[in-house]
């Protein structure tokens, strides 16, 4: 029997790329998830483009800031080439919830985690990925709040993304990897506090 190199699934690190900031009017373009245990050891990961619709494509190209950001990240080009054949949002919701259910340990809570998830990704999840939302604890772990509190309290940027590799890549999986870097710094610093 192979020994497991991680504990039970605990965190679902999440990031979305969208046509804008309003989950009620804008569209999801790309989603990514990395599942870790409480020690932040990776268990599995997934990412997917969301099928491009005429409305989403028009919205993406009408906002110059968003269009430039997704041009620079390469997402715009990937959507232009593959977006029309990508999975539908409903399929991604069902498939991701089945995948998370298979990874979850009975009786254990899965918690959404990431940078900005409390105010951005969690509302998008509740509205657009309801089957995924139903599996997650109502209170996400937003590592950007922890990093900001640390910076405000100490003046140190040890937990900032700039310190951990730079500005956001604006690709869902790469942004999660940056958030995990911040979280690993936070875990290390928090463990130094005498309890």
Automatic annotation (TrEMBL):
Domain Exonuclease: 10-192
InterPro entries xref list: Ribonucl_H, RNaseH-like_sf, RNaseH_sf
GO MF: exonuclease activity; nucleic acid binding
SUPFAM superfamilies: Ribonuclease H-like
Domain of life, per lineage: Bacteria
Transmembrane segments: none
The protein's name in its UniProt record: Exonuclease domain-containing protein
Record organism: Microbacterium maritypicum MF109
